[in-house]
Amino acid sequence: MTVMQIVQQLFNSMGITMEIFFVTLVTSLILGLGLALVRMSKSRILSLIAKFYISVMRGTPLMLQLLVVYFGPFFIFGMQITPSYRLKAVLIGFALNYAAYFAEIYRSGIAAIPVGQYEAARMLGYSKTQTFVHIVMPQVIKRIIPPVANETITLVKDTSLAFTLAVAEVFTVTKQLVASQSSVVPFIVAGIFYYVFNLVVAVFFDYLEKKLSYYR
Amino acid sequence: MRLLEMNHIKKSFDGQEVLKDISIHVDEGEVLSIIGPSGSGKSTMLRCATMLETIDDGEIIYLGDKAAVSRDGHAAYAKAADLKKIHNYYGLVFQNFNLFPHYSVLKNITDAPMRVQKRGKAEVYAEARELLRKMGLEDKENAYPYQLSGGQQQRVSIARALAMKPKILFFDEPTSALDPELTGEILKIIKDLAAEKMTMVIVTHEMNFAKNVSDYVVFMDKGVIVEEGKPEDVFNSENQRMKEFLGKFEA
Asked: Which end of chain A has fewer beta carbons closer than 10 Å to its terminal beta carbon, N or C?
């Protein structure tokens, strides 16, 4: 296999890595917001459940969680596991895990909004939903961009954990190629791929941060 | 016409009685000042009037509409829909302005009239620009709050409250976060509003201002009204506590 062929083979796996990345990012950012709201809700029970969920998700290895999501349906419900379920299990596992981290980021952002903002909104007659959507959330987003950027960069690298379920993303294919071709070239190509990917992510978040710096 | 009546208001925080049977009323076009030392309950009174805090007992009546009534020794609030209507009668200017930092000056003023009151954009914008002109901020409509001085921010927040066309405007120590020079700007604006017969309730530490601008002054201490009446009477009161308080001020 020539270097070009190796790159070609890896190139196909990059699509899977990006799919895991984007699907996880979108779903966990949405799930995380919901989870943060439950965590901050007035109901003690709901809040405690959310707190426990976050604690488990952050306190156990993502690799273990992926295995549980993959094998769980068989061991718990006796369902037949098909190979096509592998990628789905990865996506579900990642979304559930990252939602926990994002929930805590949202929570810190929401908690940092001064109570005066809520009171001013109330005095002007905004409903609770209007206050949250138009007054609170825009300010939360500005505040949480740095920690979200951090988490997103981690996510790019964490996609390699999908090798646990033998999903053909970059890391899985890299390992296979290194073994079959007795070459370190795949390692180098994979390293460059992850690095460039994260460079793009960092540039994007820098841009977002600048775009929202029109106010303080 | 009576715009606001608060009768026998009682309020405790964790067993600590902050308001002990306080009654005030405000007629149309009147300026009421509430003065008193820190911890006297005057800000709490204002927060109860604007329903940022709930009262334990007593009644709150705006323009004859009952927001809260006393029932079996407890305050019973009106239905949400009624409270929403009553809410439209008043506005509040905060000590720390509480402008929305992500909105420009103009948007701070126009967003609620459009989003909440569903008024037309052209009308709301024209009125907002007129308010900004009155506040001497016509060149600041595109600025963001962080670019303004404290006095300018407070003027925007007054404009924001006025844009909702309240019948009665509350001020919670509007100059306490400002230096003396900026304080003057704000007091002048409140004076102008008083001249236009805007009905206002002002919690303040500015004694001279309270003396000059108010129609009626209430002096509170430790959760009760110690002295009340026309400014000339209250400021010349023989009441010991009142004299002590003013004495401290003149010292």
From this structure: C
- B contacts of A114 (beta carbons < 8 Å): 98
- Over residues B65-105, the pLDDT tens digits come to 999 999 998 999 999 999 999 999 999 999 999 999 999 99
- Rounded Cα–Cα distance for residues A5 and A132 (Å): 52
- The upper half-sphere exposure of residue A28, i.e. CA atoms within 13 Å in the direction of its Cβ, equals 28
- A38 exposed, middle or buried (CB, 10 Å; 0-12, 13-18, 19+)? middle
Residue among A120, A126, A216 whose CB faces B116 most closely: A126
Lookup: tokens for A92? 């579900």
Q: What is the pTM of this model?
A: 0.91
CA A203, A205, A211, A214 torsion-angle sign: negative
Give me the pLDDT at residue B238, please: 86
Contact call for residues B154 and B97 (beta carbons, < 8 A): yes
Residues above pLDDT 70, as percent of chain B: 98
ipTM for the predicted complex comes to 0.93
Q: How much is the mean pLDDT over chain B? A: 94
Interatomic CA distance for residues B184 and B179, integer angstroms: 9
What is the tens place of the pLDDT at every residue in A94-126?
999 999 999 999 999 999 999 999 999 999 999
- Could A120 and B99 be called an inter-chain contact, meaning their C-beta atoms sit closer than 8 Å? yes
Residue type, B59: E
Neighbouring CB atoms inside 10 A of A104's CB total 18
* Residue B168 near residue B89, CB atoms below 8 Å: yes
Using a CB-CB cut-off of 8 Å, the residues of chain A touching B80 are none
